[in-house]
Amino acid sequence: MVQRFSTNFTILAILLDMVVIDGSLALIKQYYKQPFLGGQLPFLPVAAETAFLVFPLLWLLALFFNSVYDNSKTLKVIDEFTFITLGSSAALAGLAGILFLGGYQPSRSGFLLFIFLAYSFLLLWRVVARTLYKSQQHLRGTETHYLVLGAGPVGRHLVEEINRLDLPSFVFCGFLDDSEEKRASFAEVLGNIDQLPLVIRDKRVDHVFIALPRYAN
């Protein structure tokens, strides 16, 4: 089962985004019914195979660097949609720059329609996913337990942000941290990170958020 805010969901989101971008490109290809010339897209004078590979990869990179796939930063719908808008704007600028520097002269209407469709579908499937997730939580009527790896400032800030969302069914189980000082000072620290499988089983954890510094092993 793919759970919201999980690593599996992030992987699924990346795959869906790639399908959405390539699908939007395919729709534009179908809309512009002029025949192919030398294997080129009708509205864009570059090889079709190249466009279907480069366009989604560049867009995914823009989304990645704008924190779209960082679950700790996309808990709120407004944050997620803001990051998608920023990432899509960066992708638009990047694609336009590549075409300009390459001397290509694509159909403006076709290119802009492709951008609009891809951006709209990126938002749409996330709206559907959030709606289904909330419906599932309502039908289950049960609590969702989450655990945070790292009891430092980042981890505590993450818990504070989640608490601000006022989600009664979203229950904080505690932290895991390898620092002996933190385990001795804070009751919320349940153990070290090596105990993750045991804590997940005992606490029936549904989601695990990673809030560790970059230098952590």
Could you walk me through the main structural features you see in this protein, from its secondary elements to its overall organization?
- There is one protein chain.
- β1 and β2 form a beta hairpin.
- It is built from 7 helices and 6 strands; from the N terminus they run αββαααβαβαβαβ.
- It is of the alpha/beta class.
- About 3% of the residues have low confidence.
- It has 2 domains: 131 residues, no CATH class; 68 residues, NAD(P)-binding Rossmann-like Domain (Rossmann fold), CATH 3.40.50.720.
- The protein is elongated and about 65 Å long.
Helix percent reads: 55-70%
Count structural domains.
Answer: 2
**Helix-strand category:** alpha/beta
Cross-sheet strand order for the largest sheet: 5-4-3-6
Keywords summarizing the entry:
Rossmann fold; four-stranded parallel beta sheet; two-stranded antiparallel ribbon; 6 strands; 217 residues; elongated; alpha/beta; 2 domains; 12% strand
Provide a concise account of the structure shown.
This protein has 217 residues and is α/β, with parallel strands linked by helices. It has helices at residues 7-31, 48-65, 77-101, 108-140, 153-164, 180-185, 196-203; strands at 40-41, 44-47, 144-149, 170-176, 189-191, 207-210. 59% of the residues lie in helices and 12% in strands.
